[in-house]
């Protein structure tokens, strides 16, 4: 017998999640481009809903999230009965590992994949199995060849964070088709709205009983501070996930704000348009300066420097100007900095500092 309480297997192997920094020592006017937040804030309608919700704080929220699920279903053209809502999409991802993986099981993640995935696998005692990507793009063949009888869940983000790259619908289908039917494929579509013409994986979910798509209000809708996300899958999976969800996981405020945000399609469309415009501008400006940059399908770009030292030095130069971006050494991209696409002024400022750093201006 041990002399102290022992945490469950895997828990002490978790390296704590590191979020984008938000402060620079000695600077008051910082430009935060480290967490893929919306530079245009959030919808006025969401703000009105937030204020309206203040009269009901003594009431428990509804447990079935019906009004929010109906708003999402209406806007996305999907079945409200196959949606589950969570405290950020992170909670929906947690429902998935909690329900489908455990001690001794394997969870496939990719080389530069979102750092929450291995954390979630370890939370339930499962082993994260990391597979190679192909020049910063998820590689369907390396995922399929890593599948073993112990595999329970595969996590990919499409578009991916922090690379900004994505795989096409044909490759997604090939992945879904190639996986054993007992393995859950998670298509994390946190950035789906920024990829023109992409449905986030909705059609694949309709076709495969083992695919879950997750979405968030944190990125396009600018509500990272409110913590709301959702998942879409076939009914049997949603029924399983609802069993591990706490009945009051979302407050009335979270739900009414999210419903107002999803219905404000004018605001969302404007943000998508501006993002696409300044994302292309940023990428072109970087490439012209000799800084590598893959085409991004998200609301950030990944600036690729010649080596880790140059990336670190550029990060120092940006910080000295009060600009916070995201070093991604922990994502096996030590020569890169992830930069959120800000508004016009932010993009111009960031490029000005990088150009000065490169000795170009
Ligand atoms: C930001 C992000 C999320 C969203 O997290 P929330 O919990 O909804 O705020 C999910 N997946 C990826 C890849 C992300 O970058």
TrEMBL record:
Q: Mind telling me which CDD domains this protein's record contains?
A: AAT_like (cd00609)
What reaction is this protein's catalytic activity? L-histidinol phosphate + 2-oxoglutarate = 3-(imidazol-4-yl)-2-oxopropyl phosphate + L-glutamate
Domain Aminotransferase class I/classII large intervals? 29-354
What's in the keyword line of the UniProt record?
Amino-acid biosynthesis, Aminotransferase, Histidine biosynthesis, Pyridoxal phosphate, Transferase
Q: Which Pfam families match?
A: Aminotran_1_2
According to the UniProt entry, which residues carry N6-(pyridoxal phosphate)lysine?
A: 219
Q: Which InterPro entries match?
A: Aminotransferase_I/II_large, HisP_aminotrans, HistidinolP_aminotransfase, PyrdxlP-dep_Trfase, PyrdxlP-dep_Trfase_major, PyrdxlP-dep_Trfase_small
**Signal sequence annotation:** none
Which cofactors must be present for this protein to function? pyridoxal 5'-phosphate
EC number annotated for this UniProt entry: 2.6.1.9
State any single GO MF term: histidinol-phosphate transaminase activity
Q: In which pathway does it act?
A: Amino-acid biosynthesis; L-histidine biosynthesis; L-histidine from 5-phospho-alpha-D-ribose 1-diphosphate: step 7/9
Subunit notes for this chain? Homodimer.
Q: Which family does it belong to?
A: Belongs to the class-II pyridoxal-phosphate-dependent aminotransferase family. Histidinol-phosphate aminotransferase subfamily.
Q: What's the protein name?
A: Histidinol-phosphate aminotransferase
């Amino acid at each position: 017998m041990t002399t102290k309480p022992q945490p469950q297997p895997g828990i002490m192997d978790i390296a704590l999640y590191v979020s984008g920094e938000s402060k620079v020592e000695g600077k008051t006017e910082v430009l935060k481009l480290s967490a893929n937040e919306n530079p245009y804030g959030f919808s006025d309608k969401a703000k009105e809903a937030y204020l309206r919700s203040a009269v009901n704080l003594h009431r428990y929220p509804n447990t079935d999230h019906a009004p929010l699920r109906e708003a999402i279903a209406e806007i996305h053209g999907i079945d409200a009965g196959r949606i589950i809502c969570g405290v950020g999409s992170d909670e929906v991802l947690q429902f998935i590992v909690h329900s489908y993986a455990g001690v001794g099981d394997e969870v496939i993640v990719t080389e530069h994949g979102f750092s929450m995935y291995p954390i979630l696998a370890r939370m339930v005692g499962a082993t994260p199995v990391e597979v190679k990507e192909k020049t910063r793009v998820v590689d369907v063949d390396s995922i399929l060849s890593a599948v073993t009888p112990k595999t329970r869940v595969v996590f990919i983000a499409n578009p991916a964070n922090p690379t900004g790259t994505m795989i096409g619908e044909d490759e997604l289908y090939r992945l879904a088709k190639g996986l054993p039917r007992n393995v859950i494929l998670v298509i994390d579509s946190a950035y789906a709205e920024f990829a023109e013409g992409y449905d986030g994986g909705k059609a694949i979910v309709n076709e495969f009983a083992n695919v879950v798509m997750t979405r968030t209000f944190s990125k396009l809708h600018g509500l990272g501070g409110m913590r709301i996300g959702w998942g879409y899958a076939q009914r049997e999976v949603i029924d399983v996930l609802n069993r591990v969800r706490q009945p009051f996981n979302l407050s009335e405020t979270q739900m009414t704000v999210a419903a107002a945000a999803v219905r404000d399609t004018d605001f969302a469309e404007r943000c998508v348009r501006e993002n696409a415009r300044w994302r292309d501008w940023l990428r072109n400006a970087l490439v012209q300066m000799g800084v590598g940059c893959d085409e991004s399908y998200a609301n950030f770009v990944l600036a690729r420097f010649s080596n880790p030292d140059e990336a670190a030095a550029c990060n120092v130069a940006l910080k000295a100007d009060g600009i916070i971006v995201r070093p991604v050494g922990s994502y096996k991209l030590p020569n890169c900095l992830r930069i959120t696409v800000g508004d016009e002024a932010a993009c111009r400022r960031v490029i000005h500092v990088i150009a000065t750093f490169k000795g170009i201006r």
